[in-house]
Amino acid sequence: AQSVTQLGSHVSVSEGALVLLRCNYSSSVPPYLFWYVQYPNQGLQLLLKYTSAATLVKGINGFEAEFKKSETSFHLTKPSAHMSDAAEYFCAVTATGSARQLTFGSGTQLTVLP
Amino acid sequence: EAQVTQNPRYLITVTGKKLTVTCSQNMNHEYMSWYRQDPGLGLRQIYYSMNVEVTDKGDVPEGYKVSRKEKRNFPLILESPSPNQTSLYFCASSSQGGSNYGYTFGSGTRLTVV
């Protein structure tokens, strides 16, 4: 069984400030981990993914995430928030080699304040 | 352009009236999946398909049917919709092999059952 917990359903940051969105996972086998972003009235877009290569993963739009096995975490960060980053972000996990069983967290709504 | 196309984008229907939401992908992906998105719950998998004529239940399959007669199409069928199926639905597809287990999502179908 696998699950994802996203801490904080709403996060607000000022423009130019650090963005930190938290994700903890549970998986009985080595996981693949993903971050997706959803802009209003749109589908989900893949931001980045961890597939057992480098533990620090860089994605699109300046986002990155670090896989920490000891903490079972995969937090998403961006050094400097931009207004266009305002969206909902989802962390997801799947067991290695099992694309069908992609399990999502409940999402974090990011607000960027001017 | 590589994409997953869902139709319709918006649908209002009455309880008990059968409906079908279509999904088509042009990437020759083996895996396809249906999710529903509800506030505070993230995305929950309804059904998935690993290839033509191969489907299986996800986490919330009750009240839904699917079929996979062609590789590109994966329609979602609600035989007798009920108000608790009011939700935002997403179709997604993914390739089977390699390290790319990210899903490509459609733009969503917002269904209201009255």
Tell me about this structure.
The complex is a heterodimer of chains A (114) and B (114). With 114 residues, chain A is mainly beta. Chain A is built from no helices and 11 strands. In chain A, strands 2, 4, 5, 9, 10 and 11 form a 6-stranded mixed beta sheet that branches. A 5-stranded antiparallel beta sheet of chain A has the order 1-3-8-7-6, with no helix packed on it. In chain A, a hairpin with a 4-residue loop joins strand 7 (64-68) and strand 8. Chain A has strands spanning 2-7, 10-14, 19-27, 31-38, 44-50, 56-58, 64-68, 73-78, 87-95, 103-104, 108-113. Chain B is mostly beta strands and 114 residues long. In chain B, strands 2, 4, 5, 6, 9, 10 and 11 form a 7-stranded mixed beta sheet that branches. Chain B is globular.
SSE inventory with pairings:
The complex is a heterodimer of chains A (114) and B (114).
Chain A: E1 2-7, E2 10-14, E3 19-27, E4 31-38, E5 44-50, E6 56-58, E7 64-68, E8 73-78, E9 87-95, E10 103-104, E11 108-113
Parallel strand pairs in A: 2-11
Antiparallel strand pairs in A: 1-3, 3-8, 4-5, 4-9, 6-7, 7-8, 9-10, 9-11
Chain B: E1 4-7, E2 10-13, E3 19-25, E4 31-38, E5 42-51, E6 54-57, E7 65-66, E8 76-78, E9 87-94, E10 104-105, E11 109-113
Largest sheet of chain A: 6 strands, mixed
Strand/helix succession of chain B: EEEEEEEEEEE
- Share of helix among residues of chain B? under 10%
Rounded to the nearest angstrom, the distance between the terminal CA atoms of chain A is 41 Å
Overall 3D shape of chain B = globular
Number of helices of chain A: 0
State the largest interface. Answer: A-B, 25 and 28 residues
Number of strands of chain A: 11
Low-confidence stretches of chain B: none
Compute the number of strand runs of chain B.
Answer: 11
